[in-house]
């Protein structure tokens, strides 16, 4: 698993309902502004689609939402290489993303920063795409509608001239309000091009792609972005969520599920009757914390971990499931290595549905309450009380609120909470809805810390652990270079024991070999008969299983290999970088022949430990050292070359000698390679026809 390291947020931007930029959005949050309004005719005509009857076909019973009315867009003044014809074909969501990404980068110090554009990635969350592809599909399918018109009995009763005139007038009236289909139409409406457009226009050459996890898309993108940073695939990344899908199509479909509210958004309140849709974008610029501190960047807050889960089998594909939600929250805090009771604020998913809110509070109580958090000690909120449910951008809108709260050290109000949800036991819950703007006092743990949740259709869940930035709190991990001293005994450098050592089968075999009996009952093959010889020779178990493991202050190695490992792990060596390959004698090697996995002599396990220690920290965690064959990434099924001889190790301890038995191989018997084509092990001359090994 990739080593989890703290990630710094060094830049941010937002485009939200009634907020053209991040500053206006933060002012709306702290000021408790309710940003929900009625749909306007420039989006869709409510007279055509509205019906108060929830069962009416192809109608919506809700016409309210969080609408983005204005945002900054001036590519000519910004000197961006976007021709007007291309800009006209771009979905509004692509424009939001490009505008917000540019502002977030500038907040992080771009373009006058030290990061190479080749090392900057763009990973965004989006679901469904925008609204533009619906309209282009309608234009393309217009002939189908006109054909149905021509086939109507009333139209056919008219003269042919009148029929043609009516059809042509209908075609012209429809096309006059539609854009042309050009070579720029498809790129302008694809969701993956949202990320690609930013990389293209701003000349960023790191990876770019878009993730779709429904309402958790933004946090899913954040999770992928952090994994790439920890793996050193890039040095900075633009990540976040964009959602510009508030067409009448979405309204009608959500109303058929019964998910929308026609009255308003009020998370955790007894009057919650559904969510209110919203739209917007929230983007962040992320860097590894040690890099951000080294470069002197402004750090808004620190992301410690992201946990994800799926609901698995449940009541339905769209029904909330507390099992999956608990897993996501628990995994996030476990990966962060922190006690959940140290959280002092939670930005909940909080969609304003009676069942969904109660299910989420049940999950939070199960995790934070069980950890020992006192009742009412965690401030609970949901930004959906201000702007509605932004779907793909919902999680990142909540993250924006949490990040700014940590940076400004204030707790912001959650709106429209009057009568608590009766399905929640508020007296025992560690969470309490915060309804006022107040200072975020330093908790008992000494660190302001919080979590952000986002749960999506299809049973996908994500939770993020964030804390305030305290310079020097997270010390950078020391780097070990190939020419420097190796790790000290007792350090944890990813060296771990073989999975089979210490298992019941391993212990049973060790007992049999100590008693001088065959390793397996009824086994009289050379492999089984060698048990008696091992006892006489001083072997007390399958010594080829001995390898290193971390923890408890020492490396557990065989007696003869411990000295080699200790010698390999001592102070600075005089050889120059690259000497590990030079130190290996020619021939009789087994292992990869290229890349960073240089070959290691089979009979020098200490060299494997030294080579493992020379790897960068992010590689050591992923590739344990294996002393069974003296090389990294051992594959037991791999066939060795024909000239390889696996040399046995010296005995670990001396066991009581026993006289040879008739069923055991004599130790002084001459030996040679096994004749079996798939085996290259040594066998004694008395059993050359067997495929068993010593």
Please summarize what this structure is.
By secondary structure, the chain is an alpha/beta fold. Helix content is 32%, strand content 13%. It is built from 24 helices and 19 strands.
Name a few traits of the molecule.
694 residues, 11-stranded mixed sheet, 32% helix, alpha/beta, disordered C terminus, two-stranded antiparallel sheet
Report what the structure shows.
The chain is an alpha/beta fold and 694 residues long. 32% of the residues lie in helices and 13% in strands. The chain has 24 helices and 19 strands. Helix 15 (322-336) packs parallel to helix 16 (354-369) and helix 21 (559-568) packs parallel to helix 23 (605-613).
What fraction of the residues are assigned to beta strands by DSSP?
5-15%
**Which percent bin holds the helix content?**
25-40%
Q: Which shape, going by the Cα principal axes?
A: globular
pLDDT averaged over residues: 80
The major beta sheet can be summarized as: 11 strands, mixed
- pLDDT < 50 stretches: 482-499, 519-560, 571-603, 625-634, 639-657, 660-671, 685-694
> For the terminal residues, how far apart are their CA atoms?
35 Å
Strand numbers in spatial order across the main sheet: 5-4-6-7-1-8-15-14-9-10-12
SS class: alpha/beta
Number of strands: 19
Note the total helix count: 24
Radius of gyration: 33 Å
Task: Reconstruct the topology from this structure.
Blueprint: E1 7-15, H1 22-30, E2 37-38, H2 46-49, E3 64-65, H3 75-78, H4 84-88, H5 92-107, E4 120-125, H6 132-140, H7 142-150, H8 153-156, H9 160-175, H10 185-189, H11 192-201, E5 208-211, H12 217-230, E6 236-243, H13 248-257, E7 280-288, H14 289-295, E8 301-310, H15 322-336, E9 345-347, H16 354-369, E10 378-381, H17 384-387, H18 394-408, E11 410-411, E12 431-433, E13 438-439, E14 449-456, E15 460-467, H19 504-514, H20 526-537, H21 559-568, H22 579-583, H23 605-613, H24 617-620, E16 625-626, E17 631-632, E18 671-673, E19 682-684
Parallel strand pairs: 4-5, 4-6, 9-10, 9-14, 10-12
Antiparallel strand pairs: 1-7, 1-8, 2-3, 6-7, 8-15, 11-13, 14-15, 16-17, 18-19
